[in-house]
Amino acid sequence: MLLKLISRLVIFISIILLISYATLHIYPDYKKEYVAGIIPKINKLKKVKTRKIVIIGGSNASFGIDSDLMERQLGIPVVNMALHGGLPLYYLLEQVKPFMNKGDILILSREYDGLVGDNRWAHMTGTELPKIITYDLSGLSTLLSSRTFFETTTSSLFNTLKLYIKRYPMKAQKDTTSVYSSRAFKNDNIFSDFLQGKYGSDIEEHPLPKPGINSLIIDGLRKNLQYFRNKGINFYLTPPVIVKGYYKEEDMKSFWEFISEGTKIPMLNEKKMYSYNKSYFLNSHYHNNATGRRIRTISIIDDINNKKLLKLKYHNFKSIYVSNKEILSNASLMDFNSLHNFKIIRRDNNEIEIIQNGSLEHNYFRIKFDLKDYKGYNFYIQLECNKDVIDQIRFRGTGALMKFDTIIPLGNNNYGAWKKMEKVLWTDNNSYLGISFPNNEILKDARFKVKNVGVYKYIGKDDLFVNEYLLSFNNKTPIFFEVKSKNTYVKLMDIIDSEDIKANIKLEANLLYKMEYADNKIRLKDFYSGKILYETKKEIRFKKSDSDLVHIYE
Predict the structure, then answer these.
(1) For the segment 23-67, what is each residue's pLDDT rounded down to a tens digit?
(2) 343: domain CATH number?
(3) What is the DSSP letter of 126?
(4) What is the pLDDT of residue 538?
(5) What is the mean pLDDT of residues 344-353?
(6) pLDDT at 327 > cutoff 80
(7) Which of 288, 299, 367, 469 is a Cys-bridge partner for 292, taking CB atoms 3.0 to 4.6 Å apart?
(8) Quick check: is 18 in a domain?
């Protein structure tokens, strides 16, 4: 009788869940929301068959850890499974367990409030979060593994359905440039373009929540540590990144000492609390912008190396594009001919020396470019100047002055600055791009030099554009590469010249591949599965492709 009741209950619940799942799929925006970013994350995790690093946690790690950068510098697959601080810690661990193998490294970066309170262990909350279960039905076993997790997830899922029916139209929303959409994700990583900006709120000190010694979280993490150790998996903690001044530094240190001692899980670095100036944050005290993410990621890479968790290290890679350089305008320093309240002191083919000369209320130093809508392209300028100038300099196209997206020190008071542009057509059908000063008295009579200028489709520090790239047997160092393409797959023969390539070899676009030397052969390997896709005893030449861009990390 009891078994019959249980089986009927299971059938009833399954029917309800299937109806809920089907109802969600009716809505056009079902897979366009931020939490749908879990789909490419899970897909990548399933792809990796070799030793790997897996990161779990909340949005601090989703925004703040660059798995692409880690992969290239460490030479090992990295999967950033972090997404949302509202996901139960229990689920974060259970979600990755089926895919963790001996030798893997698991890193937990959980927000402070996410480690305090028993309801943070297995309670699913909110209206968006329960949909995560419906994106990957292989996770149903996790749903059924905990009564609390099951009950709170199904309850929240019904609330989500009611909200959809009440508020959402059947018509799909327009494409968005917001980071809170699935479009923001490149596989497991957020595109840098979605992380541009600075955190504007004032910082106030907050009391740090205190974890309990007998909490479900401490007990659950301790048991999971034992599980992973039995499997030969290394498990570490690292603090979330947070705006400096939000919590007291000494309180944060005590917090992590307590968590580490209570759970017995070691810290990647016992001294780093990862509190940064707010200029390195985007829209929350937990969300890094692109610059902050790079700084934090490099610091975590150092932590991993200092712990000697990996035998191999790949540092200081050079970025090479096999393509046309794609300079949209062959700008010359001699073309700077539109200025107001600036004065040219000296000019030659190598540099222009300039002084601010007059009112700061309206000034500009610009160059006339070809008539074109430059939306999505990059204006680049190299300056030699003091810190006041580089801190205050602004991009001038049309409309309000804008801060540069990225400013990189090049040494000897030289800086490279670039801005990804919106529409910049001027009213007289010419495109003027350049720089201006804001109205700040410290800039009066300021001097600086312009040494380089241009408009590019792709640009970055130390980027090198070549028409072809020869991989010979003289260089025994492995390289990594990806093919940037709008297509799902790219034929190997379309990007490489070699007599023995088979026509049916395909590469998945926008994923990393590895070329290495072994047994007097050059081998092309799937970086995530370890499978050899192609090998040859001849030199390999990457070539230009009409629609695709080969990005090599040397």
Answers:
(1) 666 666 777 889 999 999 999 999 999 999 999 999 999 999 999
(2) 2.60.120
(3) S
(4) 85
(5) 87
(6) no
(7) 288
(8) no
Sign of the dihedral through C-alpha 441, 447, 451, 454: positive
Kindly report the pTM of this predicted structure. 0.76
CA gap 277, 299 in Å, rounded: 15
Q: 139-170: string of b/e by CB count within 10 Å (b at 16+)?
A: beebbeebebbbebbbebbeebbeebeeeeee
- 270, two tokens: 């016992």
Structurally, how many domains does the chain consist of? 3
β-strands 513-518, 521-526 pairing: antiparallel
- Output the domain CATH number for residue 272: 3.40.50
By the 8 A CB rule, do 374 and 418 touch? no
Q: Please check whether residue 498 lies inside any domain of the structure.
A: yes
Q: How far apart are CA 105 and CA 310, in angstroms?
A: 10
Tokens of 348: 């030659």
Interhelix angle 89-96/216-230, rounded to 10 degrees, is 10
* SS3 call for 107: strand
Amino acid at residue number 547: S
Instruction: Give per-residue pLDDT as tens, 99-113.
Output: 999 999 999 999 999
Q: Among residues 250, 256, 161, which one has the least CA distance to residue 218? A: 256
Q: Name the burial class of residue 271, with classes exposed (0-12), middle (13-18) and buried (19+) by CB atoms within 10 angstroms of its CB.
A: exposed
DSSP state of 33: B
In the three-class reduction of DSSP (H, G, I as helix; E, B as strand; rest coil), residue 455 is classed as strand
List pLDDT tens digits, range 401-434: 888 887 877 778 888 888 888 766 666 666 788 8
SS3 labels along 235-299: EEECCCCEECCCCCHHHHHHHHHHHHHHHCCCECCCCCCCEECHHHEEEECCEECHHHHHHHHHH
pLDDT at residue 12 above 80? no
Contact 217, 112 (CB under 8 A): no
Question: By the 8 A CB rule, do 434 and 367 touch?
Answer: yes
Interval 143-158 mean pLDDT: 81
CB atoms within 10 A of CB 335: 14
Give the residue numbers spanning the domain of 40.
Answer: 29-306
Contact 293, 263 (CB under 8 A): no
Whether the Cβ atoms of residue 273 and residue 252 lie closer than 8 Å to each other: yes
Q: Which of 301-315, 319-333, 396-410 has the lowest mean pLDDT?
A: 319-333
The residues near 251 (Cβ < 8 Å, ≥ 6 apart) are 208
**Residue 281: both structure tokens together:** 């944050």
Which regions of 85-233 does DSSP assign to beta strands (E)?
105-109, 185-186, 189-190
| Number of alpha carbons in the 13 Å side-chain half-sphere of residue 165 | 8
**Domain end call among 456, 475, 509:** 456
